[in-house]
Design goal:
Elements: H1 2-27, E1 36-40, E2 46-47, E3 53-58, E4 72-76, E5 89-91, E6 94-98, E7 105-114, E8 120-129, H2 149-152, H3 173-199
Parallel strand pairs: 2-8
Antiparallel strand pairs: 1-3, 3-6, 4-7, 5-6, 7-8
Helix pairs in contact: 1-3
Length: 203
């Protein structure tokens, strides 16, 4: 009888501890998914002419499936005309696609991929192209837009890393650790109390 009572008491203690641990885990920050590490062209860069391709580098290699269309790169110009095709080349952590020249102004890059943990990740960024596609004819060459002095000073080339996506807030990590320690202390105290009661001589 005494052993059965001890087992019942121990089971109740463990159930209460499990409930406390679940509550603590619910307060813990979500695990960080993969993020965008860099782009080419770089975010917000100003270019003289349109690039031949756009590529992204993720923090981890994505899960890719051409059949399910899990990796997407869509580039549009200032006239909202799609400049990219349907083919996205995935090589390691890199996603890239070829594009055609569009109208001058901001180019918008919309991307989507399957994170290495299976969760979808996506985003949007822009860069600016100052000169549109050539429209020259035999009788009249195409006019070339001349950038202003202020715009010319903003022209940048090459690839620069973008600011990594912010990681989840872990400001409550100490709170979670404290709750875990408290749960362990409560379990130890309740077990000791239960054993002490069981060891008392009964009248």
């Amino acid at each position: 009888m005494r052993t059965a009572h001890l087992k019942t008491t121990t089971g109740l203690i463990l159930a209460a501890a499990a409930a406390l641990l679940l509550a603590a885990l619910a307060m813990a920050p979500a695990e960080a998914h993969d993020s965008l590490a860099s782009t080419e062209p770089a975010r917000d860069v100003v270019l003289d002419t349109a690039p031949a391709s756009v590529s992204l580098t993720l923090s981890e290699a994505p899960l890719n499936s051409a059949q399910l269309n899990t990796s997407i790169l869509k580039i549009t110009d200032s006239a909202d005309r799609t400049l990219s095709g349907d083919t996205v080349l995935v090589k390691g952590k890199n996603l890239s696609t070829a594009i055609t020249a569009g109208q001058p102004g901001p180019y918008t890059v919309q991307w989507r991929a399957a994170s290495s943990d299976g969760h979808p990740i996506e985003g949007t960024y822009t860069f600016t192209v100052q000169t549109g596609p050539a429209t020259a004819t035999p009788s009249q060459p195409a006019a070339t837009a001349v950038p202003s002095a202020s715009a010319a000073s903003a022209v940048t080339s090459g690839t620069t890393p973008v600011t990594p996506a912010p990681r989840p807030d872990d400001s409550n990590a100490l709170l979670v650790a404290g709750v875990g320690a408290a749960v362990i202390a409560v379990i130890a105290a309740l077990l000791a109390l239960a054993r002490r009661k069981e060891n008392r001589p009964h009248p």
